[in-house]
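step=encode ok
step=design start
structure_in=
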């Protein structure tokens, strides 16, 4: 059974960098052909995909967040990390990590999710 667990600060000041780590157990983040993703849900809004780091180590980000986003991994710890720079209150959301598989083209399905972690951007 694959389990994902987000960790990181719940409060970040505007203009700072948000950093969250997802620890994966029950499966390796280097196993073909999974895409380890970050997804968020702002209050009162739908889910927003942020980006992924693939089993190969390649990354892909949402065009709207690309300039501020970096996803990296530590294979020795079976973890992957999200960094979102220059945050504003609009980045306040519940942040999820999830395991994705490619269905077709640019479509992915997510079969395992973390429980989510609330991040608030406020001074």
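sequence_out=
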């Amino acid at each position: 059974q694959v389990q994902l667990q987000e960790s990181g600060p719940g409060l970040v000041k505007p203009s700072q960098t948000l950093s969250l780590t997802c620890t994966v157990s029950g499966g390796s983040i280097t196993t073909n052909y999974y895409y380890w993703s970050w997804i968020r849900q702002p209050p009162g809004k739908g889910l927003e995909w942020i980006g992924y780091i693939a089993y190969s180590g390649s990354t892909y980000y949402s065009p709207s967040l690309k300039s501020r986003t970096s996803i990296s991994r530590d294979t020795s710890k079976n973890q992957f990390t999200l960094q979102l720079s220059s945050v504003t209150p609009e980045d306040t959301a519940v942040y999820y990590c999830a395991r994705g598989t490619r269905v077709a083209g640019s479509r992915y399905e997510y079969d395992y999710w973390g429980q989510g972690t609330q991040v608030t951007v406020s001074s």
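step=design ok
step=annotate ok -> The mean pLDDT is 96.
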